Amino acid sequence: MNTSNDSVTNKRPDPQSVIGVDIGGANLKYASLDGQAFSRGFEMWKRSAELAEAIANDIAAMGTPDCLAITMTGELADCFVDRSEGVAFIVDACHEASKRLAGPIDTTAPACVFYGVDGRFHHGAQAKQIPNTIAAANWHALASAVASVVTSSGTLVDIGSTTTDIIPFADGRVSTNAMTDYDRLTEGSLVYVGCRRTPVCGLVHRLTLNGITTPVMNEWFATIDDARIVLGLEAQDDADCDSADGGPRTRDRAANRLLRMVGHDRKTMTTKAAEPLAQQIITAAKREINGALERVDSGDVDAPIVISGHGGDLLDVPRQRKVIDLGVVLGRDRSRCAPAWAVAERWTRLATPIASEAGQQ
């Protein structure tokens, strides 16, 4: 392979030599086609300067590939003034990570290619020139991969920690014309409700406790994750402090965070008292997601609903519809990293169309 990490040969890539990378605003996700998958939290808005090092270290733990197939949403982090700045920064960080993977002796660095909503891969120099094509393209990669590998027609519902993507596809291709975040928000195919990071005050304006309805505090005191922990929809973890108050993700602490939304805490209410609050929050989230599904989905009973991500309990699928769980198809770990798996899969199939661009800097 050419030593420039911005070039690609005409040779069809070995699926075992490609690692897909999904660079989000809150998580970094990796997957290969041989079954490896890995994700971890990464607060882009706080730690962008560490991105290249983080990617290099994470990839090194999986084994050095010939190519990194990359998609991103991290350019939306507000540490970047606009998407163009964010895309350029992430492209540069990926190339820096690639160079670090090459090491001081081996001069061959993994190639970096970037997926766009045009359904093609682009080298770094070109990706910087078309930021609106590269930005927030992971949903397109995932839907395209599902349409190619899993089922040719249906609706993909990918519920992540921050957002839900609802993408119709038919005859092996994405079948929406909405490509930008604005268009997708307007259409309903992008729902800013997820299963982990969504603030409670972004879901409900009032909560009822002991028969009394109270306005919630417009503070980031609690998230939907707390509601899911209280109801047993998500496992508690006392070693994980990725929460609104930086405290452990245990049931008692999650309940305390929820109670604060209505002016209470563990000294004035019990953990059990938080259960009806949690249920109202989950109901509100389901209303948003399922309402969007009704708007976007074709309603064709013969077209399956493909569920991805790790918040499938927030989706109510009509009884007459067939459901395909991507977690069963790919395995739970790869399903949580599904966009990373998707860009790896797409690159092994679509490498040839950009071969004429080899050698670009």
TrEMBL record:
Task: Show the Pfam families listed in the entry.
Answer: Hydantoinase_A
Q: Which residues form a coiled coil?
A: none
Q: Which Gene3D superfamilies match?
A: 3.30.420.40, conserved archaeal protein q6m145 (3.30.420.190)
Give the matching InterPro entries: ATPase_NBD (IPR043129), Hydantoinase_A (IPR002821), MfnF (IPR002756)
Any idea where the Hydantoinase A/oxoprolinase domain is?
Answer: 69-296
GO MF terms, alphabetically ordered: hydrolase activity
Q: What is this protein called?
A: Hydantoinase/oxoprolinase
Q: Which organism is it from?
A: Rubripirellula lacrimiformis
